[in-house]
Write a structure and sequence with these properties.
Strands 2-1-5-4-3 form a 5-stranded antiparallel beta sheet, sandwiched between helices. The chain has 2 domains: 168 residues, Beta-Lactamase, CATH 3.30.450; 56 residues, Winged helix-like DNA-binding domain superfamily/Winged helix DNA-binding domain (Arc Repressor Mutant, subunit A, Orthogonal Bundle). The termini are far apart. The protein is built from 11 helices and 5 strands. Helices cover 47% and strands 13% of the residues.
């Protein structure tokens, strides 16, 4: 079995810079695509950053095995989508993803965490459906919703996803879960003015002590504001909080805020 740990020496073609800037760039991309469905914006933004051949979003009712929603970032023939759906349970990631989603979504998983690349290339699903469509052999699934309605993003390309990229997807996952779970109208901020200022500092990459110095507050006060922000936005940690704030229109697109 080939796991992600074995890919640590791989150098991705797309420069990711530092982790926080990569996550903030994805948040900016999603915000710039506001007005489009969340799934469309996310697959376009993350797929572009990862350099994927195909990015998709799907929902699956596990009781009926129906797909109530499906989105792709490039045209795919309906007949091909139907064949993919009909053989969905045969995909190597299906059982692993469903098991990893009870009761909460498990971490991102790529097909080479389950099968060797050679085994996957010989798999009937890849040979008969994926390969003829020019879909890369390397696939990663990012689950954002738990059963009974399983929802996930899937990113495909011809290069393996290395350990750093998998870690970045894992950091983005909580934000996407929160966005799909609760997605109120943009621009309606539940935060106070001071809480917004604290979130802006966090988005700028400042630590709690640095935020306290910038705003002239005690570090304990900043932590209290952050507790309130996390409770109101349904997030935990800076990455999910920044992405949630951008999506709701609370925070300007990173890097475009007037000085």
């Amino acid at each position: 079995m080939t796991g992600r740990a074995g890919h640590s020496s791989y150098r991705p073609a797309v420069t990711l810079h530092n982790d926080q800037s990569w996550v903030r760039a994805v948040a900016a991309d999603v915000s710039a695509l506001r007005g489009r469905p969340l799934a469309d914006a996310a697959i376009a933004a993350i797929g572009h950053r990862l350099g994927t051949d195909l990015a998709t979003y799907a929902e699956l009712d596990l009781a009926t095995l129906r797909l109530p929603d499906l989105a792709t970032d490039r045209p795919v023939e309906r007949a091909v989508l139907r064949r993919m759906h009909d053989q969905l349970t045969a995909h190597p990631l299906f059982a692993a993803t469903v098991r990893g989603s009870r009761p909460y979504p498990g971490p991102p998983l790529q097909v080479t965490d389950v099968l060797s690349e050679r085994q996957w290339r010989q798999h009937a699903l890849y040979r008969e459906i994926h390969a003829p469509q020019g879909i890369g052999a390397h696939t990663v699934a990012l689950v954002v919703g738990s059963p009974p309605l399983l929802s996930w993003y899937q990113f495909n390309r011809d290069r393996v996803f290395d350990a750093r990229e998998m870690d970045l997807l894992e950091r983005i996952q909580p934000a996407l879960i929160a966005l799909h779970r609760r997605n109120p109208a943009p621009g309606r901020s539940p935060l106070t003015g001071r809480e917004v200022e604290v979130v802006r500092c966090i988005a700028d990459g400042l630590t709690v002590p640095a935020t306290a110095r910038r705003l002239g507050l005690a570090a304990g006060t900043v932590r209290k504001h952050l507790e309130n922000v996390h409770r109101k936005l349904g997030t935990s940690g800076p990455v999910a909080t920044v992405m949630r704030a951008v999506e709701l229109g609370i925070l300007e697109v990173p890097g475009r805020r007037p000085t």
